[in-house]
């Protein structure tokens, strides 16, 4: 045959999938666009069309191929798809009349059947490929959603939720940058929690956005509809004011609102380095991220409210420490991170009279609401016994254990009760322990003593068991530490090992103020994944002024040598506070004195020359603190720049002190060389002092 084609009918005409001998331009273009062509007759009938001379056939002679293209003889057989529909045909054509033999027609029928078989095979392959792609996408989506569920399962705080969002947005979805914004409580704005993972050059001043602003973040939060931008130009076109807010080198962006209970509570912003369109899969993944984030945020808020309620209950059950003259007290409670932030650990202090104070700490078994309830009852009982019964610590523990059994509380746990009683120049410490870790004493010289004795039976086991008192002495500057086992106890270590670790840490904190000591110990010893509750109570015996409190016509005075090291500034500051407290200076005024004392002490050690001496003088009208050194260099009032770390000490003196000045010693001051101490006048020096009125 001079020409043959295999064609398929499409919307644009007939595509010549195979062609030979066809005139140009059809041979090259492989497309026949004229309507009503002869080939349409074959697909319309779904059966072969054979003619020796189409010019004499009434149904075919007016066809375009016959009239314009010179087609004369043709034999065409339809090609069927999987559903049995004629979608094309195999045709053999001639420009002269031809009588078709049966062999010719059989051969053409076989070739058309082969085309049908190949078409169906390819269709099956394409169908299988699409099914496979769909299955792969569905599997990928399912695995992504499963990973989302697992990732958010352990996110119980806002910080943890944000970490999961950033990880999923970057590693899971493939974004280069990710930011997370929470709706403000008043419903008028939305604020990014952090900009650590946001796109570069994002201004810090725009961290918060009002909902009525024309910004993509505000639009997504206001409408609750996700926004997708294929490129930076597309976003700038939609929001012209955002050019100066976003990096033009960043490509596609997505803003995904997080909706819970019908309201937008957050928006997730994703950004890619290149331009890209939101295909169906990525859209589904991003929508899934927003959906799971909503559930995680709702759970985190509920847990946060539950934790805050538990903390409020715990704080209500832990009474405020009393103010006792010559004693410096501080305490802290740190709940287990895996619980409801409440538990059975507790501390308490009761001022019995002017000379005696009772200190208690305990650990009821468990760290949940039930343990907290039993703890509150035991603590209240022991507190009442300590106030109403002038008994020894062992007797108080016996009373508590009998009441625990007789009243049906049936709580089990450990406790320490200590009585601190003032004697001549010191304090006598009497304590008794019910299965509790031993108290520690940080001595004034920095050594740590473990008050290790054989502990008595824990509470709730045998109420009639005998209990024992033990006695030691606390001198001025000594600190008593009571704690629960969650402070330093570690799995896989013996009690002696973790107690030694606690002793070493406490010894290294000898210059730490009592108010900061309990919290500092918890931060250093308790891990982030804290498995047990922790209670810590620190009591330090203050060092009084050697001259006694001030009286009419006789001020109180004290003097202390200062080591030429910044490490001695902390202990010296504590010593000044002790002297002022023993002289009856009120706490609000002592806070100001501590700030100014820190400045003059630090400036002396930093810029002065040894030896250093700190002096305190208190009378009925004023107090005076001075620091003497052997340098003649005078302090000067400066106005430092914001970026400078120092230079503000004299400003504090100028603004907070009633009076301040510099007393020179040993004659007029001499200039100091640029390097090293002065060669002359080594006995000269100065005293930088300040005064505050007590009125």
TrEMBL record:
The keyword Ribonucleoprotein does not apply. Keywords: Hydrolase. The keyword Membrane does not apply. This is GAF domain-containing protein. Residues 663-684 are annotated as: Disordered. Residues 324-541 form the PPM-type phosphatase domain. GO terms for molecular function: phosphatase activity. It comes from Promicromonospora sukumoe. The lineage of its organism: Bacteria, Bacillati, Actinomycetota, Actinomycetes, Micrococcales. InterPro entries: Bact_Sigma-Reg (IPR052016), GAF (IPR003018), GAF-like_dom_sf (IPR029016), HATPase_C_sf (IPR036890), HATPase_dom (IPR003594), PPM-type-like_dom_sf (IPR036457), PPM-type_phosphatase-like_dom (IPR001932).
């Amino acid at each position: 045959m001079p020409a043959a084609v295999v064609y398929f009918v499409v919307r644009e005409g007939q595509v010549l999938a195979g062609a030979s001998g066809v005139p140009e331009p059809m041979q090259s273009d492989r497309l026949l666009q004229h309507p009503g062509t002869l080939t349409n007759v074959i697909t319309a009938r779904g059966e072969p069309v054979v003619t020796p001379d189409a010019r004499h056939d009434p149904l075919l002679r007016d066809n375009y191929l016959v009239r314009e293209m010179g087609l004369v003889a043709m034999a065409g057989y339809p090609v069927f798809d999987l559903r049995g529909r004629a979608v094309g045909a195999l045709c053999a054509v001639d420009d002269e009349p031809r009588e078709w033999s049966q062999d010719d027609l059989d051969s053409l029928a076989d070739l058309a059947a082969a085309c049908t078989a190949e078409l169906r095979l390819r269709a099956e392959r394409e169908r299988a490929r699409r099914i496979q792609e769909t299955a792969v996408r569905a599997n990928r989506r399912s695995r992504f959603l499963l990973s989302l569920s697992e990732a958010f399962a352990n996110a119980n705080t806002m910080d943890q939720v944000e970490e999961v969002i950033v990880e999923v947005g970057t590693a899971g979805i493939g974004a280069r940058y990710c930011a997370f914004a929470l709706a403000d409580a008043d419903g008028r704005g939305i604020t990014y929690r952090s900009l650590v993972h946001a796109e570069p050059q994002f201004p810090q001043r725009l961290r918060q956005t009002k909902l009525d602003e024309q910004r993509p973040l505000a639009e997504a939060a206001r409408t609750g509809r996700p926004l997708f931008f294929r490129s930076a130009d597309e976003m700038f076109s939609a929001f012209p004011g955002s050019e100066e807010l976003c990096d033009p080198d960043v490509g596609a962006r997505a803003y995904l609102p997080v909706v819970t209970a019908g309201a937008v509570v957050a928006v997730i912003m994703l950004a890619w380095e290149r331009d890209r369109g939101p295909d169906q899969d990525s859209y589904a993944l991003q929508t899934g991220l927003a959906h799971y984030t909503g559930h995680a945020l709702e759970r985190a808020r509920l847990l946060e409210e539950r934790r805050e309620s538990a903390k409020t209950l715990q704080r209500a059950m832990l009474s405020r420490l009393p103010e006792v003259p010559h004693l410096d007290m501080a305490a802290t409670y740190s709940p287990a991170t895996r619980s409801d932030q409440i538990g059975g650990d507790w501390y308490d202090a009761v001022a019995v009279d002017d000379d005696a104070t009772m200190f208690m700490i305990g650990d009821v078994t468990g760290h949940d609401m039930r343990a907290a309830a039993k703890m509150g009852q035991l603590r209240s009982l022991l507190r009442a016994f300590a106030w109403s019964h002038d008994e020894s610590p062992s007797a108080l523990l016996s009373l508590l254990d009998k009441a625990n059994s007789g009243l049906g509380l049936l709580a089990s746990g450990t406790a320490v009760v200590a009585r601190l009683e003032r004697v001549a120049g010191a304090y006598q410490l009497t304590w008794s322990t019910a299965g509790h870790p031993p108290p520690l004493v940080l001595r004034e010289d920095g050594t740590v003593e473990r008050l290790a004795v054989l502990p008595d039976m824990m509470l709730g086991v045998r109420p009639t068991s005998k209990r024992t008192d033990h006695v030691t002495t606390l001198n001025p500057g000594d600190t008593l530490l009571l704690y629960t086992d969650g402070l330093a106890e570690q799995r896989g270590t013996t009690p002696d090992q973790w107690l030694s670790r606690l002793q070493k840490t406490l010894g290294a904190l000898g210059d730490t103020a009592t108010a900061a000591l309990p919290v500092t110990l918890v931060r250093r010893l308790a891990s982030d994944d804290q498995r047990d509750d922790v209670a810590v109570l620190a009591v330090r015996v203050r060092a009084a002024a050697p001259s006694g409190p001030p009286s009419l016509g006789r001020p109180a005075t004290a003097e202390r040598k200062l080591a030429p090291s910044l490490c001695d500034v902390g202990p010296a500051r504590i010593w000044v506070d002790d002297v002022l407290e023993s002289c009856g200076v009120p706490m609000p005024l002592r806070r100001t004195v501590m700030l100014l004392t820190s400045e003059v002490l630090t400036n002396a050690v930093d810029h002065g020359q040894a030896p250093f001496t700190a002096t305190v003088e208190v009378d009925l009208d004023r107090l005076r603190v001075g620091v003497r050194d052997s340098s003649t260099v005078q302090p000067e009032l400066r106005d430092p720049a914001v970026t400078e770390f120092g230079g503000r000490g004299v400003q504090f003196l100028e603004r907070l002190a009633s009076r301040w000045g510099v007393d020179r010693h040993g004659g007029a001051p001499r200039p100091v060389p640029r390097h090293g101490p002065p060669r002359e006048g080594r006995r000269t020096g100065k005293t930088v002092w300040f005064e505050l009125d007590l009125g």
